[in-house]
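On clarity, I found the account of how folds are encoded harder to follow than it need be. Since the whole study asks how a given chain folds, the encoding of that fold should be made plain. For illustration, here is how one protein appears when written out as sequence plus structure tokens:

:::
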Amino acid sequence: MKHLKGSLSALALLAGASIPLVNSTPVGASNSFSCATSSLATPNISAKPTVSTCTTVAPDGSKELIQIPSNFNGNLILYSHGYVFSGNPLTAVDAFSAGTASILLAEGDALAGSSYAKNGWGAVQAALVDQITTLNDAKSLIATNDPAVLGQTLSSNAVSATYATGVSLGGMITAALVQQNPTTFTGAMPACGVVGGGVTAWNRALYSEVAFKTLFDPTGSLLTTGISPGAATSNYASADAILAGALSKASSSAATAARLALVAALGSVPTWFSQAPSGTPTSTEIPFQSSATAPNLSTPSGLQSALLGQADWMFYVDFPFAFGPGRSDLESVAGGNPSWTNGVNYAQVLANSPDYAEVQALYAAAGISLSSDLASIQGTTPISANPSSLHYLQSYFSFNGNIQIPVLTMHTTNDGLVPPENETSYANAVAASGNSNLLNQVYVNDPGHCAFSAAEYASGLHGLMSRVATGSWSGATPAALNAYAAKCYSDPSYNATADSSPRTFPSNVYPAPPAFDTSGFTPGVPLGQSQSGYLLAAKDGGVFAFNGSFRGSMASVKLNAPVVGIARTPDGQGYWLVASDGGVFSFGDAKFQGSLGGTHLNAPIVGIASTPDGKGYWLVASDGGVFSFGDAKFQGSLGGTHLNAPIVGIASTPDGKGYWLVASDGGVFSFGDAKFQGSLGGTHLNAPIVGIASSGSGQGYWLVASDGGVFSFGDAKFQGSLGGTHLNAPIVGIKYYAPLNGYSLVGADGGVFNFNSSYDGGVASIHLNAPIAAIA
């Protein structure tokens, strides 16, 4: 396999004579350790500490590596290593690199890390157990301070601070450890991590896979999902071969070049690549972009260089994950495919890509239709997720932003495997939880995945420790980090390795592109709904979250009018409630854009729908009046129109340029780009219609009646209903579930009924102070 520098560093930290000691089990340690001592391999350091290096193999097969310097200062750093493809040996790693380890050990920090019991994506689940075991074992070794075990006596046996850090998948594990163990660590630094969540990462990869297959292998055998372990290597080799052929053709075909750029943009692949692939290039490999700076997209040569950089990223780095052993392993441990394209609006995904301008320029130069190619991709057969596999990926791992300790994240500005949008997504989740003061994010202005120098990585940890010590992030500004990194190169006490020359952090925080959604949806997914569970809203303003993020409610507040609707933000980290008097209440990252509270209304408000980007919303009244706020565009209404029955709901199109209103008699009214697909107006109904939900494509919708009857129109697939079923309470709402192209119904008593959707719980079995009014 081809690997990137720094992602799976093997450590060779000790030099000189080692003194193996007899296995011994310290008091409190869960495993028996073999320890050896050696002087730190730091040629220029004047006072070399002696380092005890202890190893063991745990009962689950995971390996532990713990290093404790004689000048131990109280800091214990737990390192989580990055992704290792299944089939490779389990290797314990306790630092980002040998150089980073030397810097930290010289300062007196102790290091610890596990191999985890599994490689591949299964490492996430294993690491959440194995890393805590390793941490506790390190604490026990330090606390006993037994020279018969360590080979020396430490200057201190008191652990005063514990830090978690790691890169790539290890960055995700680091953030997960902090979320699951909120009081265990003093601070954390997830670097270049998948902190947007696993669902988002694999969904975005699938969008690019589908585009590549559609544009370059429409009738071929290339697999995007369902990749068996035996076919993984050959499948990604086929993808690489197709890519190599397309890149060769792109030099003389502007259309091919434009389409390759579109594939890259849908996967947020950057245009700058400067990490040389490992191994000797063969005839099957592609040219290598070597550029000291990011390509200039305003020039033809710059566009050509940009495309080559993206092709390098896909060929050498992304395709082994997307088309090969990476996805195959994920599907194996998850028990099936956890990704989906139902409800994805590829045009919206592209519009939010940092590569959008490049794509537009190349399509214009080629004189071909971008909208036509997007339509071809949009027209492919949607892919649905396996329910249990999706649940697995949600569990390992999704982030709610509820951090209780200082967290510093670090990322390169041009990362094509784990794009920096992950950091913005994580920041949104943290902000929605009200913890932004605990988060600081810095970026290294360089291409590559986890392509930090030893000093840069150490400087990030030093900045984190400064925040813990002072309560201020002033020690973690770009200037402060640069100063510490420079010290690591210039001061003989720290100049431990022949590292690359120092680079600089941007003087301002690098402006990351639009964020990955934490719940797995892109900004273009309809209704702003999250695949991660659902929310129920009661008439008294109470909110009940099921596998979703609870951000507050109005249950303890006296309301002037009952709550009648709820809408979620695209990332699932916030929501709005609306009352029948038009009052709007915002929670989490849902921004208040205005309301009708205190305004005279001709008819009560009955529903709310949010825009795809979460920056606006529409309110609808029972007389068909529509009121728009934020970036929600007014497309028309029925105010002043005679209606046979009152309006009861609203649903927006995926692009936010239109909406449907539905009346209790089943009449449907379309506005903007919302296409009329049929209605029940004039049809005898056993019970009134109470809600509407749009299909993922926006080419259809479902209506639901209070008796649970479901009626589908356009491409909205009928998945079942409760018509004819005895219900304890009337149905009051319907929610689209994109991963399985299904829907959930909710009753006034809080009972939830699922049709090709995920059941995450309900409140039918508990006493409610007020009936449920809506679901989102």
Summary: The mean pLDDT is 87. The two ends are 43 Å apart (CA to CA). The longest strand covers residues 439-447.
